[in-house]
Design the sequence.
C-alpha cells in the first residue's frame, strides 16, 4: 500500500461511514415516488440518528448485560466488516487471504448478538422474530458462500478484495450465465439480510408480521441509533459486494471509481426501492422456497464455472 | 422394399376403410379381411428372395421375416376369434377395429424397419394404437389399466429413444459418418465407440424392456392383460411383447458386432432371470385367470431374454421359442376368452369342470396349458431344453440352475391353477348360476376353432419340422448371432432334439 | 457471442425445470413448459448459425415443428383439459415442493459430473449440451414419479422428451428428416391420447388424483 493510498483512505473511509443513511433515504424517496408522495427529506435519517443520540436509554428489568452489549457488538462487527469490503475503490482497508470467511462470520456474529439481545428481553414477540431471523439466516448462508466459491474459483484468490476486483472482469465473458446467477443469488441474500420485501416488510406495524423490527422493539436511545445505523451499514456492505460482483471495474478507471461506485450503489438502492414498491411480502412459508431457490442458483453457478474451468 | 411397404400399407388401408364403413358387420368383415390380406402378403413374400439393402429405411431380413410371419398368423387368428367374442360394443367399434389394424400396421413397420429410428417410431405408434384397445370395456378399472400402460410405456420408449441417439453417437466413433441403419452398424461393428454402444444398449434394454414386460418394469402388464378383452390380451402377449423383443434383439445385434456381446448378454440374462423369478412369485396362488396368463407371459419373456443373452449357442432355441410362444400364448388367451364367456367370470375359482361341461374347450385348455408349460411333444419343450444345453455348454451353471428352478415354480403354479379348471366335479354348479354366459353355437365354434388352429399349427410344425421352417429358423438365428459366428454347426444341434 | 447465447438458453432451460418442480399451479406449469420448449426450439437455429452460414431447410423444419407442436398445440390441449376440470392446483406431493427443488438441483449437479466422464466422439456445439440434456431428462422423470395429478405426470413425460430433444441436437444435420418428424408426430399423438384419457379419468372419478387409481393390485 503506497503512501498516497494510505492518505486517500481517510476521506474514503469517512465517506463510507457517512453514506449508509443516505442510501436509506434513497430507498425511501423511491418508494414515495411510487406512491405519488414527496416523501421525507433527504437528510431525515441523519436527523433521526441525531435525535436518538440526545435521548436517554430505557432498560427493562428483565434484561441483563447481553441486552446492552448486543447493539454495540453488532455495530462493531459491521464496522470491522467494513474494513474488509472494498466499497468505493478496488481495495479495502485491510485484507488477507481467507478473509472472506471472516466477513461472512462477522455478519453472522452481528446477527447472533441481535438475536441474543432480543431473547434476553423475555418477551415472546422478540423470541418469535429471533426464531424467524435465525431460520432465514441459516438458509441464506449457503447461497452467500456458494457465490463466494464461484468468485474464488474465477479469480483464484481467497482474499475478498481481490475476489471482486478487476480480475473478476474476464469471468463475465467466460462464464456469463454463471455470473448472472451469482448476481441473482446475491440480490436475494441482500434482500434477506437487509430485511426488505419480499422477505420482511420494514414498514409494517403489526408485530406478528415483523422479523427484524420486532427484535429491536425494546431498544431505545443511542443503542437504537446503533442498530438503525448498523442496519444501513449492512445494506451498504452487502450492496457493495453485489455491485462489485455485478460490475467489476477494470484497473484503468482508478480515478473515476469512487464516483461511479456511489452512483452504482445509489442505483442499487433505487432498485431495492422499486422491488419494495411493486411486490408484496411473501407468505412466511414461501420464504424458504425463495432462499432455497437462491441457493440452487448459486449451486448451478458453481457447477457452470467448474465446467468452464475443466474444458 | 416393395414387400415391406405393402406389409405396412395394406393393414393401414383396411383400417381406414373400417373407419368409413356404415354397419358394424361390414366393419368386422373389413377388419378380418385386412388381417387375412396381410397374411396373404406375408405368405407371398416367402416365395421371393429377400435381402435388405444397406442404407434403405425398410427391408426384410430373416429375423424380421420370421417375426412378421408369426405376428401376421396371430392377427389372422385373432380376427376370427374377435368375430366370435365380440358381443356388445362398448368403446366405439369403429375406433376399436381401426386401432387393431393400426396396431398390425405399426408392428409390421417394426419388423421390416432397418433403421433404428424408424423402428422406434413404429414401436411408439404401436403403443399408441394399443392404448384404446385396452380401454374396450370402459369403466374405472380399464381406465386405470390404460393409464398405467400408456404412461409406463411412453416413458420406457422415451428412454429407448435416448438409447437410439447414443447408438447414433457410437456410430460416429472413428470419424465415420453417422448411421442408424442396422446393416451399416453391424457391418462396421469394429469401429463403433464402445462406451456409447454400452450406454445405448442399456437404455434400449430398459426402454424396450418396459414394453416387453421385463421385471421390474412389468407392473403395467398384469393390469392391462386383466382388463383388456381376451383377443386384445392375446395380441398384446403374442405380438406386441415379441415386437419389443425384436427391438432389443436389434440392439443386441449391434452390440455383438461391436464385440460387446458378453456385456450385453450378462444384462439380458440378469433381467431375464429376474423376470422369471417375479413371474414365479406371482403365478403361485393367483386367482384371476387372465392375470395368471399375464404372469406366464412375463415368464416367457424372461426365458427369451435369458436365451438371447446366452449368445450364439442358444440362438436357434431363441427363435424356436419365439415361434411357439406366439402361437401357444395366443391360443391360451383365446381359450381364456371363451371360458370367460361360458362361465361368466375370469376368477379361477368360478371355472371348473371344463372337460366335462364343454369337452372340446376343456381339451383345448389342457393342450394349451401343456404347450405353454413346456411339455413334449409341444415345441416349447425343445426350445427350453436347447436353452439349458446352451447354458451348460457355455459354462453358465448358476444360470442353468436358476432357470430350471424358476421353470419348476411356474410349472407348479400354473398346473395347480389350471388343472382344477379342466377337471373338477361335473355335477357342481357354478357359484353364481345366473352369471353363466350364454354363448351361441356359432360364436363358440369360431372361438374354439381359432384356438385349435393355433395349437394344431404349432404342434404340426414342431413335430414334422418341414425343412422350410427349419431353414427359416436357422437363418434368423444366424442373423442374430452375427456375421462372424463360427458356431453354425452347434447352432442347429439343439434343433436335432426334435422328434 | 453466439456461444454465450447458446449457453444462456441452455442454462435458462435448466432453471425452468426447477421452476416447474417448484410451482403448484398446474396452468403455470404448462406455460413454463411452453416457454422451455420455445427456448429449446430456437437452439437448432442458433447451432446452425454457429457455422457462419444460414442453416438449411432441415433445421428450420425441425424448429418449426417443435414450436408448432410443443409451444402451441400440446399446451393448448393440456390447458383445455385443465379448464374443463375444476382442479387447478397440484396437491403436496409426497416429496414436497421445496425438497423437489433441492433434489432437482442435486440432479443437475450430478448430471454435470456424469457428463464430464462421457467423452463425445464428435465436437459438440457447446460443452453444456450433454449435461443439460441429462439434467432435463432426469428432472422430468422426477416430476413424473413424484407428482400426484395426471396432468403434471404428462408434463413430466414431456420434459423427458425435451431432454431427449436437446440430446438429439448433437446429431443435428445427420439424422433423416423423416425420423425427426416421426418423433415429433409420435409425441403429439401421445399427448393427444393422454389428454383424452385424462378427460375420461376426470369424468369417471371427478378428480385427477392418480393416487386413487389403486384398485388393480395383487389381492
Sequence:
Amino acid at each position: 500500500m503506497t503512501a498516497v493510498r494510505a492518505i486517500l483512505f481517510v476521506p474514503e473511509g469517512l465517506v463510507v461511514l457517512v453514506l449508509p443513511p443516505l442510501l436509506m433515504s434513497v430507498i425511501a424517496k423511491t418508494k414515495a415516488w411510487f406512491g405519488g408522495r414527496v416523501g421525507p427529506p433527504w437528510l431525515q435519517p441523519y436527523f433521526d440518528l441525531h435525535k436518538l443520540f440526545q435521548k436517554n436509554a430505557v432498560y427493562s428489568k428483565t434484561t441483563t448485560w447481553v441486552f446492552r452489549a448486543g447493539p454495540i457488538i453488532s455495530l462493531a462487527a459491521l464496522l470491522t466488516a467494513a474494513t474488509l469490503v472494498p466499497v468505493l475503490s478496488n481495495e479495502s482497508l485491510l485484507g488477507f487471504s481467507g478473509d472472506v470467511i471472516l466477513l461472512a462470520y462477522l455478519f453472522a456474529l452481528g446477527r447472533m448478538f441481535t438475536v441474543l439481545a432480543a431473547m434476553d428481553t423475555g418477551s415472546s414477540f422478540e423470541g418469535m422474530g429471533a426464531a424467524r431471523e435465525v431460520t432465514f439466516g441459516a438458509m441464506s448462508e449457503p447461497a452467500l458462500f456458494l457465490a463466494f466459491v464461484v468468485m474464488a474459483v474465477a479469480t483464484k484468490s481467497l482474499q475478498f478484495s481481490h475476489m471482486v476486483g478487476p480480475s473478476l472482469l474476464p469471468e463475465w465473458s467466460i462464464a456469463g450465465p454463471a455470473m448472472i446467477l451469482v448476481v441473482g443469488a446475491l440480490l436475494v441474500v441482500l434482500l434477506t439480510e437487509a430485511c426488505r420485501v419480499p422477505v420482511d416488510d420494514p414498514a409494517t406495524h403489526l408485530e406478528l408480521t415483523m422479523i427484524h423490527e420486532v427484535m429491536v422493539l425494546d431498544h431505545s436511545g443511542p443503542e437504537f441509533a446503533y442498530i438503525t445505523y448498523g442496519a444501513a451499514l449492512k445494506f451498504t456492505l452487502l450492496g457493495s459486494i453485489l455491485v462489485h460482483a455485478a460490475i467489476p471495474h477494470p484497473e484503468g478507471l482508478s480515478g473515476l471509481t469512487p464516483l461511479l461506485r456511489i452512483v452504482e450503489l445509489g442505483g442499487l438502492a433505487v432498485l431495492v426501492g422499486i422491488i419494495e414498491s411493486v411486490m408484496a411480502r411473501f407468505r412466511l412459508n414461501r420464504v424458504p422456497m425463495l432462499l432455497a431457490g437462491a441457493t440452487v442458483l448459486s449451486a448451478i453457478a458453481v457447477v457452470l464455472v467448474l465446467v468452464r474451468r475443466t474444458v | 422394399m416393395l414387400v415391406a411397404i405393402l406389409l405396412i400399407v395394406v393393414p393401414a388401408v383396411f383400417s381406414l376403410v373400417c373407419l368409413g364403413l356404415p354397419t358394424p358387420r361390414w366393419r368386422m368383415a373389413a377388419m378380418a379381411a385386412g388381417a387375412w390380406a396381410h397374411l396373404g402378403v406375408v405368405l407371398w413374400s416367402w416365395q421371393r428372395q429377400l435381402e435388405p439393402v444397406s442404407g434403405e429405411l425398410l427391408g426384410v431380413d430373416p429375423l424380421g421375416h420370421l417375426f412378421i410371419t408369426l405376428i401376421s398368423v396371430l392377427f389372422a387368428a385373432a380376427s376370427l376369434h374377435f368375430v366370435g367374442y365380440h358381443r356388445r360394443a362398448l368403446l366405439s367399434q369403429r375406433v376399436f377395429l381401426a386401432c387393431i389394424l393400426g396396431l398390425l400396421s405399426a408392428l409390421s413397420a417394426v419388423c421390416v424397419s432397418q433403421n433404428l429410428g424408424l423402428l422406434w417410431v413404429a414401436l411408439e405408434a404401436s403403443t399408441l394404437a394399443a392404448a384404446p384397445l385396452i380401454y374396450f370395456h370402459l369403466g374405472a378399472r380399464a381406465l386405470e389399466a390404460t393409464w398405467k400402460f400408456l404412461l409406463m410405456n411412453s416413458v420406457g420408449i422415451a428412454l429407448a429413444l435416448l438409447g437410439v441417439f447414443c447408438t447414433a453417437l457410437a456410430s460416429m466413433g472413428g470419424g465415420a459418418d453417422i448411421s442408424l441403419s442396422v446393416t451399416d452398424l453391424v457391418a462396421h461393428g469394429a469401429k463403433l465407440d464402445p462406451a456409447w454402444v454400452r450406454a445405448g444398449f442399456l437404455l434400449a434394454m430398459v426402454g424396450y424392456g418396459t414394453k416387453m414386460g421385463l421385471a421390474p418394469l412389468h407392473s403395467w402388464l398384469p393390469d392391462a392383460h386383466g382388463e383388456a378383452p381376451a383377443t386384445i390380451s392375446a395380441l398384446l402377449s403374442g405380438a406386441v411383447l415379441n415386437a419389443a423383443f425384436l427391438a432389443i434383439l436389434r440392439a443386441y445385434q449391434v452390440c455383438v458386432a461391436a464385440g460387446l456381446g458378453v456385456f450385453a448378454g450378462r444384462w439380458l440374462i440378469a433381467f431375464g432371470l429376474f423376470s422369471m423369478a417375479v413371474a414365479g412369485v406371482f403365478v403361485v396362488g393367483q386367482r384371476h385367470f387372465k392375470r395368471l396368463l399375464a404372469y406366464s407371459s412375463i415368464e416367457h419373456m424372461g426365458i427369451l431374454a435369458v436365451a438371447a443373452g446366452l449368445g450364439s449357442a442358444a440362438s436357434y432355441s431363441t427363435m424356436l421359442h419365439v415361434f411357439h410362444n406366439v402361437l401357444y400364448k395366443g391360443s391360451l388367451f383365446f381359450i381364456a376368452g371363451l371360458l370367460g364367456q361360458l362361465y361368466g367370470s375370469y376368477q379361477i375359482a368360478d371355472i371348473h369342470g371344463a372337460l366335462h361341461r364343454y369337452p372340446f374347450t376343456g381339451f383345448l385348455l389342457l393342450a394349451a396349458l401343456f404347450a405353454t408349460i413346456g411339455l413334449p411333444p409341444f415345441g416349447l419343450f425343445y426350445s427350453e431344453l436347447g436353452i439349458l444345453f446352451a447354458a451348460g455348454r457355455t459354462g453358465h451353471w448358476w444360470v442353468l440352475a436358476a432357470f430350471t428352478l424358476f421353470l419348476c415354480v411356474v410349472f407348479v403354479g400354473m398346473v395347480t391353477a389350471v388343472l382344477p379348471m379342466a377337471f373338477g366335479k361335473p355335477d357342481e354348479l357354478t357359484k353364481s348360476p345366473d352369471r353363466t354366459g350364454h354363448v351361441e353355437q356359432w360364436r363358440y365354434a369360431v372361438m374354439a376353432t381359432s384356438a385349435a388352429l393355433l395349437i394344431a399349427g404349432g404342434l404340426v410344425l414342431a413335430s414334422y419340422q418341414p425343412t422350410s421352417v427349419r431353414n427359416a429358423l436357422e437363418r434368423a438365428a444366424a442373423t442374430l448371432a452375427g456375421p462372424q459366428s463360427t458356431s453354425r454347426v452347434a447352432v442347429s444341434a439343439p434343433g436335432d432334439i426334435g422328434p | 457471442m453466439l456461444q454465450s447465447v447458446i449457453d444462456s438458453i441452455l442454462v435458462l432451460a435448466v432453471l425452468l425445470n426447477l421452476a416447474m418442480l417448484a410451482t403448484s399451479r398446474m396452468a403455470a406449469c404448462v406455460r413454463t413448459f411452453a416457454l422451455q420448449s420455445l427456448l429449446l426450439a430456437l437452439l437448432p437455429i442458433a447451432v446452425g448459425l454457429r457455422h457462419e452460414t444460414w442453416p438449411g431447410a432441415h433445421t428450420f423444419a425441425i424448429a418449426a415443428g417443435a414450436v408448432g407442436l410443443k409451444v402451441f398445440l400440446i399446451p393448448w390441449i393440456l390447458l383445455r383439459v385443465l379448464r374443463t376440470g375444476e382442479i387447478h392446483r397440484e396437491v403436496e406431493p409426497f416429496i414436497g415442493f421445496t425438497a423437489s427443488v433441492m433434489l432437482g438441483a442435486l440432479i443437475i449437479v450430478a448430471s454435470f459430473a456424469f457428463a464430464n466422464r462421457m467423452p463425445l466422439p464428435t465436437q459438440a456445439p457447446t460443452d453444456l449440451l450433454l449435461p443439460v440434456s441429462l439434467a432435463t431428462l432426469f428432472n422430468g422423470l422426477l416430476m413424473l414419479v413424484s407428482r400426484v395429478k395426471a396432468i403434471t405426470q404428462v408434463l413430466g413425460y414431456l420434459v423427458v422428451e425435451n431432454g431427449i430433444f436437446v440430446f438429439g441436437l448433437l446429431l443435428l444435420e445427420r439424422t433423416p428428416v423423416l425420423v425427426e418428424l416421426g418423433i415429433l408426430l409420435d409425441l403429439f399423438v401421445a399427448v393427444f391420447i393422454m389428454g383424452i384419457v385424462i378427460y375420461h379419468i376426470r369424468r369417471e372419478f371427478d378428480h385427477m388424483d392418480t393416487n386413487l387409481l389403486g384398485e388393480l393390485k395383487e389381492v
Remarks:
- Chain A is about 70% helix and 0% strand.
- Chain A touches chain C at residues 173, 176-177, 180-181, 288-289, 292-293, 295-297, 299-300, 303-304, 306-307, 310-311 (CB under 8 Å).
- Chain A has a mean pLDDT of 89.
- The radius of gyration of chain A is 19 Å.
